[in-house]
Specification:
Blueprint: E1 7-11, H1 21-35, E2 39-44, E3 57-60, E4 63-66, E5 69-75, H2 80-89, E6 93-96, H3 101-112, E7 117-120, H4 125-128, H5 138-150, E8 154-157, H6 160-168, E9 175-177, H7 194-199, E10 208-212, H8 221-233, E11 239-243, H9 249-255, E12 260-263, H10 267-275, E13 279-282, H11 291-298, E14 303-306, H12 309-312, E15 321-324, H13 329-341, H14 343-357, H15 362-384
Helix pairs in contact: 1-15, 8-13, 11-14
């Protein structure tokens, strides 16, 4: 069997209605599979105003807005219409990327038909509760996730550090790596523009500490702003640049009244803004892979990040950036202070990060997922033989 023989039913809780690193990776995967001749049918909740056009055939899954987070949708399972569509499509492998109600139902559908199932892990959902004063519920969420992932034939995680977390949580015994790539035609150090910085009021000699990502509390906005306060107390000269949009923007703007907020940026505009930083500060612990970290590295920027699964497989501590214990405000501030006051250190670590980013090719990365589909089909076929 070849990649062109694959018929993949892929379920996502958010394929394109809100833009984030996970759904952009899924769209890239589908685009690659289609170019190789595979058949792919995507099932996901949709909205009338998606963040970007979907790649491939997209079938709407019934869903309702999540209370308090209306930009996200809560799926309502597999309707008879969806079951008929799945039967007509006749997949030979099922890929589930969201451990929600519809994800569970699709797994059950596939298992009854003895189809191989793969789950991709994009987010550490159990850690979200920490940002809503519900950390006590983490063990329960972890148990729910364990039940879901153990029903799958295999998992793929975006980094070995995240795979190790999943193994330690006993989520599955077959865990591979589906890393992330970066478009080096867009993200590179040549995108740095002092004219762009001047246009937004930043002087050539000012050191810019940047935030890149969706503006939601689970991205560590509180840790970021507390660290900026600590830098001010220490008298460290700096400017703050925030790239991104989201429901917590008003809160973040109130906490950082002197910061420049660009809003959402894409393509060359995004790369120019990232290259306009002097150091990226990524305190989040919820990602399974640091897409923003990789983009900053490709632009030649050193990274100060939480020592968590999202960045540990990318940042080489004291070589291309710093990895700091999550939530350690004073240590974050100390690392940022060093970059703010030592331009040679910024240059050296930024160059190391840019060199490291060259290891991430999208086509090679996505073929690894296709190879995993093929392996699971072979294994399932072998177990069916008398």
């Amino acid at each position: 069997m070849q990649t062109a023989d694959l018929r993949i039913a892929l379920y996502s809780g958010n394929y394109n209605y809100v833009r984030d690193g996970a759904n952009q990776a899924l769209n890239r995967l589908v685009g690659y599979l289609l170019r190789q001749g595979a058949a792919v049918r995507v099932y996901s909740p949709t909205t009338d105003s998606p963040a970007f056009p979907p790649v491939g055939d997209l079938v709407d899954v019934p869903a309702m807005p999540i209370p308090g987070r209306g930009e996200y949708r809560f799926s309502l399972g597999l309707s008879p219409r969806l079951r008929r569509d799945l039967k007509a499509f006749a997949p030979n492998v099922v890929h589930v990327s969201s451990p929600d109600v519809s994800g569970h139902r699709l797994l059950t559908w596939a298992r009854h038909r003895r189809l191989p199932t793969l789950a991709s892990v994009h987010t550490r959902f159990e850690t979200y509760l920490r940002y809503y004063n519900m950390a006590w519920g983490e063990p329960l969420v972890e148990a729910i996730l364990r039940r879901f992932y153990r029903r799958c034939d295999a998992l793929v995680a975006p980094a070995e550090s995240m795979a190790q977390v999943l193994r330690s949580q006993r989520m599955n015994y077959d865990i591979g790596i589906w890393s992330r790539g970066v478009d080096r035609d867009i993200f590179h150090s040549g995108q740095r523009s002092l004219a762009w910085r001047r246009a937004i009021g930043i002087g050539d000699g000012e050191v810019v500490i940047g935030f890149l990502g969706r503006l939601v509390m689970e991205k560590g906005l509180d840790v970021f702003s507390d660290t900026v306060d600590e830098l001010k107390r220490r008298g460290v000269a700096h400017r703050v640049l925030v790239i991104g949009e989201g429901p917590a923007r008003a809160w973040f703007e109130a906490r950082l009244p002197d910061a420049h907020f660009t809003g959402f940026q894409g393509g060359d505009d995004l790369a120019r803004a990232v290259a306009g930083m002097d150091v990226l500060f990524n305190p989040s612990v919820t990602e399974t892979f640091g897409n923003v970290t990789l983009e900053a590295m490709a632009c030649g920027r050193p990274v100060v990040a939480a020592s968590a699964a999202g960045s540990e497989s990318l940042v080489d501590d004291h070589v291309s950036g710093r990895l700091i214990r999550p939530g350690a405000i004073h240590q974050f501030a100390e690392a940022l202070k060093a970059y703010a006051e030592q331009p040679d250190l910024r240059t050296r670590h930024g160059a190391a990060g840019e060199a490291r980013s060259r290891d991430f090719s999208w086509d090679a990365i996505n073929q690894e997922v296709a190879d995993t589909y093929l392996r699971l089909i072979r294994q399932k076929t072998a177990t069916r033989r008398p």
